[in-house]
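Quick one, T. Sequence first:
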Amino acid sequence: MRRKQIWQIGILVLAMTVGALAQSWENNNPVHLRGTISDVSAANVAPPGPWVIPGTWSLNLKGDSGKAEFSASLSMEESDYWVLANSKDPNDPQVRNPHTHHVELVNGVVTPLSNGFRVTGPATVTANGGPAPFGPNSTVQIDITGGALVPYSNIKVTFGGDAVAHLGMQPLDGVVRSVGR
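Structure tokens:
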């Protein structure tokens, strides 16, 4: 009889420990993050460049599964530098070649960083709501980092694969505006 009680107590302690660990992870890690991107590409990206690239993004961590979903809505247009360097009419918005890109990552792999975390995986990138002309095979790396006062404050989005031809190899920088659980 005593063995059975010890066994039951052991199972109860194990269950409480696992529950506490899960709750600790949930309390110490964000689940929903949102923010903005505001960057300018290098001049040699998808000539003619550089491009002004603002947008919004959201990232949802899927509990303790090690997976996340990411989406971003980006606008792109030629910079003032390009307009002036190419003797274009700065009053004509169409000379800036405005267009949009939507980026989606499903089941991205989450890995910890010393000052945040990283999400990587294959991405779907559109152009003006349709297939991107640079091709369908793109990857994305999202780094969410911060410091002692604001643990999740910065985002860097780095493209790989086909998207590099248009969005470049340099990360797009932005900020984390909200963190929720």
